[in-house]
Amino acid sequence: MAPSLTTLGKLPVVRCRLLQRYEHQPFVSCLAGLYGCQWRRYQRTRAMPGDCCCSKLECASFALLIVTFCLTLVFLYFWSEAQNDYNDFDWFNFGNLGFWFPWSVVLLVIAAAFFSYVTLLLLLAVCLLSEGQKLYLHWGHKIGVLVSLAFSILAIAVLSDLCSKEWTTLLLSFQVTAPYLHVGGVLLMTLLSWPIALHFYDINRKVGQALIMGLYLAVLCALYLVPLGMYSPCLKEESTLGLAPALIGHRGAPMLAPENTLMSFEKAVEAGGQGLETDVTISYDGVPFLMHDHTLRRTTNVQEVFPDRTDAPAAMFTWGELETLNAGAWFLHRDPFGTAWSLGTEDRAQAQNQSVCTFRDFLELASQRGKQVIFDLYRPPKGHPYRDTWITRTLEVIQNESSIQSHQVLWLPSDLRSLVQQLDPDLQHTSASRAPVEELQQNHIVQLNLHYSSMSAEMIIEYAAANISTNLYVISQLWLYSLAWCTGAQSVTTNALQFLNNLNRPLFLMTPDEYNLMWVLTDVVSFTIIFIIFIFHWWREQRLAFFSGSKPTLEHGTYIKFRTDVWSVSSVNILGEPARSPLATEPNLATVSEH
């Protein structure tokens, strides 16, 4: 008997489905091989409609994979935004371990590697689910995921204890990155709508459909509405943006020369620094000199010259002893910022021969270049001849031994401030702590010197109204400097003068209307695409159900009819003769698929 028109009409559909099935085979083999080392087809199992996508163990593994992805992402973002303080972290480890190593960069590379690995596994899992395959994560990957998870948890716990202020830095970073994170999150959820729509229509149980759709819509709506709670001082009209904060060289230009040396301060002036910051210690014989640490071990060769006094307080050395030390070779050897390679031959030779700098020479340089200075002053330890007169000795150098003008000096030490104001009323008194405006005015404070983590536009505006300027330290990243610019800070202390001085505009500056347009447009486009994807899968479901007369099955990411339906079509050939039985042809199909 000749085949009917209905049967003939089904043939192209069946042929299309079979071709799609075989064309997807290499792709599925690659996915399963990378995810579960299941390179051959007989090793894999297809998920039937209504069935769970994997066993209980594999469900737990997939859930663990998602948790690990989230934690590795959080740590990677946390540590990448902490780059501003990498130098402090590395020197902290130097003080505890006794040797220099760029731990911060190594930690960042490891975090990026773990995140990339877990992201790849998660992407493979989503693709396998989209292709209708049951998940099986290879035991080697299970171990890798556990190691990634353990690393992220341990790193977050340890760094939260050592660098608790970095969480404040992370929150500050959202004021710059939140608009871009919002767009990225919406884009990710839009891409996930395709596999989610596939499984939504493939699940028979209403509870499963409600669970998947409810969770997806909850996350999607949260992302859509996140901008409502976003705050950023960089959302303003450009006409209201103030002047760029003045740059103060932190210990000079420590990326271009050894810190607290004359060469470092000269480089800071050349790089456009409007002020110079340093740390002052008084030698045993009463000579104020520049040294940040309480010992000489980190920035001099004291271990070679005075091996028995490596850990002795720097203030317990005489100036004659300090003059014999080299204060520059360490910079080329350890290269703390990874910038020593940029120095020319002359600069390298100059850095190699730097010595400990006196406070008087520092003030003379600032006076000649017309720069303001700010410094921390360390009180000598017990038993030091100048322990009780360290303030007056420092004032003697400013007033009698250098040509600097008192108004160029931002006096930061809080000890004996009333006495200092009596001895030299022209000094610009600076406070390192926040206090009510009335209290600051009573103490004649004209500037605040605060850590950047306390950055607040409201605070800066309040103090500026009382003619009290705000300096933020230490800011060396472009995004942090942009944020300080938008908040209205008058100056910042930085390690990266050569980079910040070239920034002509904040990295992120947008008017509220522009941001609202970007936000609404992103959400509308995303919702439209997601709606079209779900409508498409619904239409496809209805169309395939019409052709097969039964519920379609998802296999290898394409909708095909039950095998019995395929054989019912192929059992009658064009000549009307019966074909071979399905049992006889099934192995041939497997063979063709394998090839």
From TrEMBL:
The chain crosses the membrane at residues 62-80, 100-129, 141-160, 180-198, 210-231, 517-539. It is found in: Membrane. GO terms for cellular component: membrane. GO terms for molecular function: glycerophosphodiester phosphodiesterase activity. SUPFAM superfamilies: PLC-like phosphodiesterases. Coiled coil: none annotated. GO terms for biological process: lipid metabolic process. Residues 245-504 form the GP-PDE domain. This is Glycerophosphodiester phosphodiesterase domain-containing protein 5 isoform X2. It comes from Salmo salar. The gene is LOC106603710.
